[in-house]
Amino acid sequence: MGNPLLDICAVVDKDFLDKYALKPNDQILADDSHKALFEELAKKFNVEYHAGGATQNSIKIAQWMIQEPHNVGTFFGCIGKDKFGQILKQKAEEAHIDAHYYEQDEEPTGTCAACITGDNRSLVAHLAAANCYKKEKHLDLEENWMLVEKAKVYYIAGFFLTVSLESILKVAKHASENNKLFCLNLSAPFICQFFKDNLMQVMPYVDLLFGNETEASAFAKEQDFETKDIKEIAKKTQALPKVNKKRQRIVVFTQGNDDTVLASGDKTETFPVEKVDPKDIVDTNGAGDAFVGGFLSELVQEKSLDLCVRAGHYAGHVIIKQSGCTFPEKPDYK
To answer: A single Gene Ontology molecular function, please (predicted)?
Structure first.
């Protein structure tokens, strides 16, 4: 469950980033100062449109890794009744995702500008319709809740904490009460900083937490962990209070091309990332989402955690050699 967005991707220049005060590698929510950004991006640069939104990207990648059967993942989110909404529906279908969108006509379908410079990407999300998801209008409906009950693993990106905390808590509590796996992503430093209260209301239900090094550092700072060591942060995050005592929390932090850190049980391990020739890197947008998708594709098949990490690394590798969160027809993953 998350924010379905249409990604508008373009390679831009430093002047463009400076004009809108964007950091080269960041993700933020659009405000009034970014109103003109979306139009200028489409006018001035060569843009590509991709079905996006972090959670939906991850589910799409998991499905791609699994291949058969289709529709292993069900997705909930809110879109507008407009052209972009139609594109998202079509792209979800093409990716064999069982998407059940809450459609409303007050707000247009959300978009995300992916401003690419070198191997950095600055994301500016204009949530619009994605921000209108309503628990009582969609999640609570019997035909939708039945799909929740049917699932074994739940994955929600931290971005959704800004939209519908009550929807996340309903799903998280269901997972906890039925000893099913609930996974969350820190998603962005701003989530750890400005939506800390929402995040910490959900954390006791989190069985598996994903994040990258900048998010982990921001989280550690907000939680007063008093360490900058990513392995230490993973350990301390793992030890935070948890409702379902049958499952110890697992924490996975990626660090770009540096080792991935995994805290599970009483050990914290690191997994090296195979180096990619910089000239093969097209665009790092979606690499983190792809890692999660690869990881989940093995997790739902009850593979060991080291194999989950390996699949995550593979998927991340494929994605950075493509533009946007797109991929070849089939994985050549063994």
So the answer is: ATP binding
